[in-house]
Design brief:
The protein has two helices and eleven strands. By secondary structure, it is mainly β. Strand 5 and strand 6 form a beta hairpin. The longest helix has 9 residues. The chain is globular, with a radius of gyration of 17 Å.
Length: about 160
């Protein structure tokens, strides 16, 4: 099911920060309010440029609980649509702006966090359900086998 949802997004997906270093992986909670990690933390000290992981439209750029947050809603057949979130950031674009994958959309801030050297929390949601944002990049990293020329096939 999710393979179909992400098909149009996969070819143009980009890492939100470069170089990509995962500090804290996705760890979905067992229950809606249970403990877990509803996104991926990427190493990113304050001032790091943040890129859109996929093309879409800025649908939120502001503060949530004292932290800067940017949300980009992705186009496609998913209903409700997929949304990527980035925090803590200083958004560089207003709500309504169309963005392309890889475009700089924010910078990380020095808001206190659980990452000692600073990090970007990157999330992916469909309605109120959190998904692993690395799914956006899965296809780009998938190895492909090439045909072997000049070798007899096993019989």
């Amino acid at each position: 099911m999710y393979r179909t949802l992400f098909a149009a997004l996969l070819a143009a997906a980009a890492w939100p920060v470069l170089p990509p270093v995962v500090v804290h992986p996705w760890a979905p909670p067992a229950t809606p309010y249970g403990p877990g990690h509803r996104g991926v933390d990427l190493a990113a000290p304050a001032g790091t440029p943040v890129r859109a992981a996929a093309s879409g439209r800025v649908t939120f750029a502001g503060q949530v609980a004292g932290r800067g947050v940017l949300t980009i809603t992705l186009p496609g057949p998913a209903s409700p649509p997929l949304r990527t979130t980035y925090e803590p950031v200083r958004p560089l674009l207003p709500v309504g702006t169309s963005v392309t994958a890889g475009q700089v959309v924010a910078t990380t801030t020095d808001t206190p966090s659980h990452c000692p050297e600073g990090c970007l929390h990157w999330g992916l949601l469909r309605s109120h359900t959190y998904l692993n944002p690395l799914l956006l990049l899965h296809h780009a990293a998938r190895p492909r086998l090439l045909p072997v020329v000049g070798v007899a096939e096993p019989g």
